[in-house]
Amino acid sequence: MLKYEKSGHVATITIDNPPVNVFTPSMHKQMFEILQEFTADRDVRCGVFTGAGERSFSAGDDIKSKRPDRSREEVVERHLTPSRAFDTEEYPGWEHEVMNMARFKPIVGAANGYCFGQGFIYFNLLSDIRYAASNAVFGMPEIAFGMGGAGAALSLGRMIPHTAAMELLLLGEKVDAEEAARMFLVNKVVAPEKLMETAQAAAERIASHPPLGVRVEMESYQRSFDMSRSDAMATAGHMYRLARSVQPTQPPLAEKGAAE
């Protein structure tokens, strides 16, 4: 299962399915529903995404989940139809809805232990600043079973250097936290007991900023990837001016509180 907890302006999403926090089809649906709530809640300004315990952030999808027998026609129809149109929870399923969901509210990732497969995809796709405990291990081992496509699903080459992306995707080998930092997969490696403290501090800092400014930064940044330089500049300028026209200059919550 997934836990969704709010404290002040920060919400924490925790993968909690021991022993190694694998994802089941129903958990992908729950993730989609949590992200919808997270995105719509105006009082929540930032998120933290982590795994319960120290053994694993998430070891990926539950390979023991039953896959129903389907004809070729049914497989194609299932692939092309949004998961929300089906009553059943199966693979492929709600993970596609999660990965296609627009998100302009920041999330801080906190990885502990194993971070493999779909867990690796979610960690990278659903977080913007990322911390790893020194015991974290990352990898995409699926290539050894002929399962490719994660690089495109993640646009991994936009996140890290091309050679690092190819090393992860084609060798299928595990990398430790320090190597993940060298690859720019994570921002910082910390002691396991400092992981959540570090992630929470970053989330609180983000949440202290005016939310409209954070939204403009997130959206203009994401949309600019597929634009020419001139279009990106125009979009940033328009969004900035729109936000400034309705939001007076004010100090962040942390500074305001200190001044008072």
Automatic annotation (TrEMBL):
<dbReference type="InterPro" id="IPR001753">
    <property type="entry name" value="Enoyl-CoA_hydra/iso"/>
</dbReference>
<dbReference type="Pfam" id="PF00378">
    <property type="entry name" value="ECH_1"/>
</dbReference>
<dbReference type="InterPro" id="IPR029045">
    <property type="entry name" value="ClpP/crotonase-like_dom_sf"/>
</dbReference>
<dbReference type="GO" id="GO:0006635">
    <property type="term" value="P:fatty acid beta-oxidation"/>
</dbReference>
<dbReference type="GO" id="GO:0003824">
    <property type="term" value="F:catalytic activity"/>
</dbReference>
<protein>
    <submittedName>
        <fullName>Crotonobetainyl-CoA hydratase/dehydration protein DpgD</fullName>
    </submittedName>
</protein>
